[in-house]
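Q: I have 112 residues here and want to know how they pack in 3D. Can you give me a structure?
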Amino acid sequence: MNDPKLKVILSALLDKKAENVVYIDVHEVNPFSDYFIIATATSQRHALALGQHLKEILVENEIPTHHIEGRNSSEWVLVDANEYVIHIFSEQARIHYGLEKLWSNLKIVRVS
């Protein structure tokens, strides 16, 4: 992984104890983003804290953020940072939506 912005995002998630963090390089099949990053939060508060921390880290590192969705619903917080789309799920929502299965034809890299 040679992408410095991806490293910043992954570190921010790991710093706040996100679980089962993976990233998927989608740049060859998705014209809007380069990476999907998926993480699991252990609780509603944890999901919100991860989203807020990530937002702060993105600003500090001058990584543009298009928008954040789901701050009122902790089942799925989505941070759209243009080339990087970060999905923070509850464990149940992650299983339900199965993003890893949708992108299983691509290389999925487990970080934690």
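Q: Anything worth noting?
A: Residues 93 and 101 are 13 Å apart (CA to CA). The domain at 4-106 is CATH 3.30.460.10 (Beta Polymerase; domain 2).
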